[in-house]
Write a structure and sequence with these properties.
By secondary structure, the chain is an alpha+beta fold. The chain contains 13 helices and 28 strands.
């Protein structure tokens, strides 16, 4: 900052008759009068940007304001933005236009009936973490609806709609404009704030410390840039209520707004979070917990029913039944089968993480299935296979815990899930879901399973009814098993003759060997009571 002599400035004061920092005409005077700033000289030469011969307030008047602040509390003024507000609180008498947040409901943005018309830069601003501060003029649109008045605020009681002045780097296609309604103060470049602004720079440091109670300190940070890219105070985030600060674990930063929060870390960039998703995340210790930083803004599910945010360590969903946390590895499994897309395999989460009744696994419920975690294994089960497993007492039944995801079989037609006790549930759209286990399953697999003419099961494993054996029906035959004969598949060509002779209840009783394929396409299979050749 330029070294000033406060007492001399206060004694000399601002010249009487100068009524506006943006609009007062330069007074004629001796050659010893203070030299105008570069900004003033550029603007004065740009006649198309001025109206009625007005220009910026003379250098002496501006430095008198700054000098007054220095005389009041020079150390606080230079080092503490909060004190600077008090040191340079404006009044209508100082001629400057009020800040927009003073007249726009606290919003640091152009109010209705105005547009971004031009800007200037002030260097070394305490309000921008020592970087440049940009002052953006909001000029009234035509026809102008506002009237010249004082803002009436206790600190920023400056002028509104009084100064007929325009720098003109923004919205140059708008030729008709009224007076400056108010000023926006930002720490990002104006062309970042509004694409309607050019990069033509005019510098005037006299306003670097102007303030108002409704302006908060900010830096040219990733969070600030994202905030204004979203629409700033006019976005759903609204007005900032807590200045940007470090997160507790030290990996990133965040700022709080009326309608949500922005969190930033180097891997995730600046992301919006709010509402019930934020509450659930905060309950899980936010950035210090298993979820870490948000890696997306709040998103909408493919079917429009849910809102959700992705995090470094999972996803949190909010929809009509409630808000549900899906941490990794559950989240990774869910994403693998479609996550929140429309008609995904599992659908949306419907429960918190729970423990199975036998205490051996943890699980998360979804609309159409479940994800189980047991040790290092994390697998999903959904659709007809899930409901078949549940109908058989789930993890407490004969199949036990889930040991694989629902697998898409190589023919693209069938699906299958493996269980801890060696059982399998097979599914196709035409056969439905059926459970096989024990020797009946072994006989089917020994024959070649679904990759052969056996096809897929059309029934579960069933008791034969003689108290001795079990069977299951398939598209291309049946599998039979007893504790003494083992399990063997009987293909349809042999099955026809076998059942004609009474099947396991007839003289042949149960098969004791796999089918033999002889020359000429002949099939032969041995049974307890004889042999069939077809």
């Amino acid at each position: 900052m330029i070294a000033l002599k406060p007492r001399a400035l206060l004694r000399r004061g601002a010249p009487h008759g100068v009524s506006s920092a943006e609009s007062a005409a330069p007074a004629a005077g001796p050659t010893s009068a203070p030299t105008a700033t570069i900004a003033e000289r550029v603007v004065a030469r740009t006649a198309g940007l001025l109206s009625g011969g007005h220009s910026r307030r003379r250098f002496l008047a501006r430095t008198a304001v700054v000098g007054s602040a220095l005389a009041v509390n020079p150390v606080s003024f230079l080092l503490k933005p909060g004190t600077a507000y008090g040191a340079v609180c404006g009044t209508c008498g100082d001629g400057w236009t009020a800040f927009c947040c003073t007249v726009n409901g606290g919003k640091n943005s152009c109010p209705p009936g105005s547009f971004v018309a031009g800007w200037w830069k002030a260097d070394n601003a305490a309000y921008c973490c020592g970087g440049p501060r940009y002052i953006v003029d909001c000029n009234a649109t035509c026809p102008t609806q506002c009237a010249c008045r004082c803002s009436g605020a206790s600190c920023d009681g400056r002028r509104v709609c009084c100064n007929q002045f325009r720098y003109g780097q923004c919205n140059q296609q708008i030729s008709c404009y009224g007076p400056v309604v108010c000023r926006v103060a930002i720490c990002i470049t104006p062309w970042t704030y509004s694409s309607a602004c050019s990069t033509r720079t005019l510098t005037d440091n006299a306003t670097s410390q102007h303030g108002a109670n409704c302006l908060s300190d900010e830096c040219d940070s990733s969070i600030t840039r994202r905030y204004y890219a979203l629409g700033g105070p006019d976005s759903t985030l609204g007005i900032r209520t807590t200045v940007e600060r470090s997160t507790p674990e030290g990996r990133g930063r965040y700022a709080v707004y009326q309608g949500g929060r922005l969190y930033w870390s180097s891997p995730t960039a600046a992301r919006v979070i709010g509402g019930s998703i934020y509450s659930a995340w905060a309950a899980a210790q936010a950035t210090s917990g298993v979820f870490g930083f948000p890696s997306t803004d709040v998103l909408t599910s493919g079917d429009g029913r849910a809102r959700y945010s992705k995090f470094e360590g999972g996803t949190i969903y909010s929809w009509s039944p409630g808000t549900f946390q899906v941490p990794n590895p559950y989240n990774l499994v869910h994403a693998k089968v479609g996550g929140a897309i429309r008609n995904s395999a599992l659908g949306l989460p419907t429960s918190p993480i729970r423990r199975s009744g036998d205490g051996r696994s943890l699980y998360l419920n979804f609309e159409r299935g479940r994800i189980y975690r047991r040790g290092s294994l994390c697998v999903e089960i959904h659709g007809a296979i899930f409901f078949k497993h549940e109908s058989m007492s789930g993890v407490h039944g004969v199949l036990g815990h889930v040991a694989s995801d629902v697998l898409v079989l190589a023919d693209g037609r069938g699906r299958g899930t493996i269980f801890e006790h060696g059982g399998v549930i097979y599914y196709t759209g035409t056969t439905g879901a059926h459970a096989l286990y024990g020797a009946v399953l072994k006989g089917y697999l020994d024959y070649g399973g679904w990759q052969t003419d056996a096809g897929y099961p059309t029934t579960d494993r069933l008791a034969v009814g003689d108290g001795r054996g079990y069977t299951a029906t398939f598209e291309g035959g049946k599998s039979f098993a007893t504790s003494t004969t083992g399990g063997h598949f009987v293909p349809r060509r042999i099955l026809t003759q076998y059942e004609a002779q009474g099947g396991p209840g007839g003289s042949l009783r149960y098969p004791v060997a796999m089918v033999e394929r002889l020359a000429g396409g002949v099939l032969r299979q041995r049974f307890e009571g004889g042999t069939l050749t077809v």
